[in-house]
Amino acid sequence: MNRGQIRIFEAVVATAVIFVAFSASILLIYPSRLWLIYEREYLDRLGYNILHNLAETGAIESVLGEDTYHLEIIMNRIMPLLTYYNLTIFVFNTAKGEIQRFASVSNATPEVFRRMPEVSSTMMVYTSRSGKTYYLVLVLAKGGEKS
Fold first, then answer.
1. Taking residues 111-126, what's their average pLDDT?
2. Are both 24 and 41 inside the same structural domain?
3. Same domain for 13 and 71?
């Protein structure tokens, strides 16, 4: 009887060792900052969606001739909570053949973007009804507990 109990104890210990070994290998295989990968994908997708929606709804066209105040209001309404943004619009000057800064709106300082572990940058080329070509660059960073 004593030998049977020892064999059962050995089987339980062997099972525990195998479980610990598999658990440790899984932790070593996956990166410890896996949330950064998902966060970067989320920010990239969010940037493309925001720029696409601004173009499709005509919001860009409506604010191009106005001051940046209206553009800032639009961005603050569509931006998710705890998300920092910087939208810079450049215009292509055909007479000079160069790109000039047209407008910029942001809800954070450049220092905030330098401190963030993940920052996403999305670019879009937009041609207005008048035929002018604009380059929109949207920089996003997720704020909150991980920043």
1. 90
2. no
3. no
